[in-house]
Design goal:
Blueprint: E1 11-14, H1 21-31, E2 35-37, E3 41-42, E4 57-58, H2 61-69, E5 73-79, E6 83-88, H3 89-97, E7 101-105, H4 108-117, E8 122-127, H5 131-141, H6 146-160, E9 168-171, H7 175-187
Parallel strand pairs: 1-7, 1-8, 2-7, 3-4, 8-9
Antiparallel strand pairs: 3-6, 5-6
Helix pairs in contact: 1-7
Length: about 190
């Protein structure tokens, strides 16, 4: 396998809530050491089994606002009207400069900001096999109240409609297969997909 070069574009993985972005990213983290995964900051509380500095950097709203105001975030958003999320800018720029295969796993709002700030970035839309499967995954997580699930599902319908804004779509019907497809494409995003 050839090492990544400094011409590797930033790849952004986004998609609707509960589609499995985090699960696909975790699989890539464990199986593809050549891929550099950005660790976002968030003001929400950790979910069970989430580790600070691995899954997210969990920070206060005050610290988030300071970082954003100082230009330290590549993108930032309030997600589901509740918590702030953002991508620290400097680690991304460092990974690109080091010739790594850089990957951001973020929400739709963040993907749109990255597209504006880094037009050469490649956006990948992770989609569910069906709406029913997306609902099943969200309910099955058991991490949200019924009211929070309703908000997330309403957001997911809007997010699914944004698929056409992306450079590529990958169906997450199997985590390993979706991760492998993404990494293969990251290694050669200019490849003709027809």
């Amino acid at each position: 396998m050839a090492p990544a070069t400094s011409t590797q574009p930033l790849v952004v993985l986004a998609g609707p809530t509960a589609v499995g972005k985090g699960t696909v990213a975790a699989y890539i983290r464990e199986n593809y050491p050549e891929v550099w995964l950005s660790v976002s900051v968030t003001t929400r509380h950790p979910r069970p089994r989430e580790v600070d500095g691995v899954h997210y950097h969990f920070i206060s709203q005050e610290e988030f606002d300071r970082l954003d105001a100082e230009g330290g975030l590549l993108e930032s958003a309030v997600v589901h009207g509740r918590a702030s999320y953002g991508t620290p800018r400097q680690p991304v720029l460092d990974a690109i400069a080091d010739g790594r295969l850089p990957l951001l796993e973020i929400d739709l709002q963040g993907a749109r900001q990255v597209r504006q700030r880094m037009p050469d970035a490649h956006l990948v839309f992770l989609e569910p096999p069906s709406w029913e499967e997306l609902v099943r995954r969200l309910v099955g997580r058991g991490t949200e109240t019924e009211q929070e699930r309703a908000i997330r599902l309403a957001t997911a319908r809007e997010e699914l409609a944004a698929k056409s804004e992306f450079d590529r779509a990958i169906v997450n019907d199997d985590v390993r297969r979706a991760a492998e497809e993404l990494v293969l494409w990251m290694r050669n995003p200019q490849r003709d997909e027809s």
